[in-house]
Write a structure and sequence with these properties.
One of its GO terms (biological process) is signal transduction. 54% of the residues lie in helices and 15% in strands. The protein has 714 residues and is of the alpha+beta class. A hairpin with a 2-residue loop joins strand 3 (347-355) and strand 4.
């Protein structure tokens, strides 16, 4: 198993020579510090010279310090052999594990070794001194209490130097430990976090006890009446030295624990750390916790990356479900922008073509954010497309959607939706809202007005009824739909954009400016003002262009006033559409309107009554046989009249029938000769229409009737 190493460490190119040099410096400075402390203690406290304490001269003392430094460096070089192999290029798991274990153990080996070796040297030194004194003066005259006091003071100095080396070496080896991360395999054979704390704090406590013992010995041997003040000075000196040593030791552990706490808080706070693993800097519970944390971090990173891929896929699916942001349908230009707060959101919009003369526009906002809102949004988008093609007014479409959402989800979710159906021939908008924010109409002269129309959001009450309003648009008018993420955007000062901000923006719109550039610049300014915000933002704008509508509007003028538009109109199919519930009698008004429209379009023709009768029979057939008189179903009539041909389609929601069998000549003859009234509708249609057929498209089953333009006989 190959281990990847961190290469941005300060010691990424560290060699054995560099490491040994640094260890030499640490050992030398620590030993010199001990000798300086000893020298200061004897000069300023005990009024002795350095020569009185040590029989060796200063050069020999420095030589002894240098020799001790070289011995410690040699031992370190021997113990760190596996580390040098790992740094030299052996990145196998076994080599890395062995190197890390040596790095973890070396400070403790030095601490224990210095204490033991220091005690042995001091015992040997004072033993030799004792033998010499006994030979010269006799053992009875030897001051044993002073001997133990001196031994205690010197041993406290040895322990102090050992603690300095222990903490300094741990700090020095930390970059190399980081260089050899991550910890390979499982964390087996660890020590306890109590061991280093026990070693260091027990050592500092022992230093304090040894100093107190030495002070007691000195105080007992002194007969100076002013020694109480001097005793306080000595105690203060040792207290300051012990406090400094204690702070130096605890500072190292404090830094390590702080790094551990920061990493854990970062994970709890949701901050990603794909490249920021927690270093394993000790072979104890803290190190094991770091290893477990890194494993958890790696697992979270993998799951996060998987979630990111899923969210990206969901975002792509969501974007594919939404229509293009820039559309042109007839004389209307549609601009839509949807900015999700997260990768996926709950805002949505749609534009659906219903016929050559009608289309629907919708905007919605699912309560909540993120993936749950996105899933519900996708389902609602598909549900809307299915329901809007089943015919019915915007209010009826919302009713059907509401019933299905209430049945499927109960009270667990709510959605605000606004639906508008636009008639291209009349430039009218039939609009209904289910708890959505009121839209605006920005007029060509620069004024604007809100449209008051709202009911309960979808998902609250299965029997809710949705009001509708009919709006008349004029060339240059803009119909503006939006979601609450736009209104509730807050700037750095905590000020909400609000309806005042929206109306202030709408008041600056000019009729001749490009609506796409205007909307895009508006949203850019919103981002600069409020940032990404805390909710999805969606805006849909319908702009009625002038030329196409102005030509069609001349249909209402007399022939002499049509001018150049007359030739244009003669070659166009004009479309109208009706949607009626499946109740007998509803077809009469539509049949009368169709007859009047035929007479207006073809004044010289004599087929008005034929059209009315055939269309009435076709609608009755759709109501009775197609929809089975079910009150929740609808029949849609799509009419197109050209210069020489009129085509009418009657849609129902039934299963249909076979047109060839229904239109067979023999079957028609049998129906004419039969006394049974059933089937006479098709006979009437076949007799009055020039041609008829049945079929099915994405809107459902239909019966299609054709009428040729016929001139009245003179």
């Amino acid at each position: 198993m190959e281990i990847k190493h961190i290469t941005d460490s300060p010691l990424s190119a560290c060699s054995a020579r560099t490491l040994i040099k640094r260890l030499l410096l640490v050992y030398l400075l620590s030993l010199l510090t001990g000798m300086i402390v000893l020298h200061a203690e004897n000069i300023f406290i005990f009024n002795r010279s350095f020569h009185d304490l040590m029989p060796l001269k200063a050069p020999l003392t420095l030589l002894a310090i240098l020799a001790g430094t070289l011995v410690l460096a040699g031992i370190s070089n021997w113990r760190l052999g596996p580390v040098f192999l790992a740094l030299g290029g052996d990145h196998s798991e076994q080599a890395t594990r062995s190197a890390l274990e040596r790095l973890f153990r070396l400070p403790y080996e030095l601490l224990i070794g210095l204490k033991i070796s220091g005690l042995i040297v001091l015992v040997m030194y004072h033993g030799i001194l004792l033998i010499r004194t006994g030979i010269i003066h006799g053992m009875q005259q030897f001051d044993w209490l002073s001997l133990f006091g001196a031994l205690a003071g010197e041993m406290s100095l040895v322990i102090t130097v050992a603690i300095l080396i222990f903490t300094s070496v741990r700090w020095l080896l930390r970059p190399i430990i980081l260089q050899l991360q991550p910890w390979p395999g499982s964390f087996i054979g660890r020590a306890s976090i109590a061991h280093p704390l026990l070693f260091t704090f027990a050592s500092t406590f022992l230093v304090a006890l040894l100093h107190l013992f030495r002070l007691a010995v000195i105080a007992g041997a002194s007969h100076d009446p002013d020694y109480t003040i001097k005793f306080g000075q000595i105690a203060l000196f040792y207290f300051v030295m012990g406090l400094a040593l204690f702070y130096y030791v605890t500072l190292q552990f404090r830094r390590e624990l702080r790094g551990l706490v920061r990493s854990i808080r970062g994970l709890v706070g949701g901050r990603r750390q794909l490249s920021g693993k927690m270093p394993v800097i000790s072979h104890d519970e803290a190190g094991e916790l770091a290893v477990a944390f890194n494993e958890l971090q790696s697992r979270i990173d993998r799951e996060y990356e998987s979630l990111e891929r899923e969210l990206k896929l969901a975002y792509n699916v969501q974007q594919k479900l939404l229509p293009p942001g820039d559309l042109t349908i007839g004389s209307y230009r549609i601009v839509a922008r949807c900015q999700p707060y997260r990768e996926v959101g709950g805002d949505f919009f749609d534009v659906v073509s219903l016929s050559p003369g009608r289309f629907a526009v919708m905007i919605g906002d699912v309560s909540g954010k993120g993936m749950p809102a996105a899933l519900l949004m996708s389902a609602l988008l598909l549900l809307f497309r299915a329901e809007i093609r089943r015919n019915g007014s915007p209010g009826q479409v919302l009713q059907r959607m509401n019933r299905q959402i209430c049945e499927a989800m109960g009270n667990e979710g709510s959605v605000s939706i606004g639906v508008g159906v636009i008639d291209l021939t009349a430039d009218t908008v039939q609009y209904a809202s289910a708890g959505h924010l009121s839209p605006y109409i920005v007029m060509a002269d620069g004024g604007f007005r809100g449209v008051d129309c709202s009911s309960l959001p979808i998902g609250f009450d299965a029997e809710a009824v949705y009001e509708e309003v009919s709006l008349q648009l004029h060339p240059g008018d803009r119909f503006v739909l939006y979601t609450d993420g736009l209104i509730e955007a807050v700037d750095e000062e905590g000020k909400m954009y609000s309806f005042e901000g929206l109306e202030s923006e709408l008041s600056t719109w000019q009729a001749r400016e490009d609506i796409v550039q205007r909307v895009d610049s508006w949203l850019v300014r919103m981002d600069q003002r409020s940032g990404a915000g805390s909710d999805d933002r969606t805006v849909v704008i319908l702009e009625l262009a002038g030329p196409y509508r102005s030509a069609l509007s001349q249909l209402d003028a007399v022939a002499s006033e049509r001018g150049d538009a007359a030739q244009f109109i003669q070659n166009q199919f004009m479309s109208r559409e009706w949607s009626i519930p499946s109740r007998l009698g509803e077809e009469r008004a539509v049949a009368l309107e169709l007859g009047e429209w035929i007479e207006e379009s073809w004044p010289e023709s004599n087929i008005r009554e034929d059209v009315q009768s055939a269309m009435a029979e076709a609608m009755i057939n759709a109501i009775e046989h197609g929809n089975k008189l079910h009150p929740s179903t609808y029949v849609t009539v799509l009419a197109q009249i050209g210069s020489r041909l009129a085509v009418f389609k009657i849609y129902d929601e039934g299963g249909g029938y076979f047109p060839r069998a229904s239109k067979a000549e023999e079957e028609m003859t049998k129906k004419r000769e039969s006394d049974d009234p059933r089937g006479w509708g098709l006979v009437i249609i076949d007799s009055l229409a020039d041609y008829w057929a049945t079929g099915r498209d994405d809107r459902g089953f239909y019966t299609e009737l054709y009428f040729l333009r016929k001139i009245k006989p003179s």
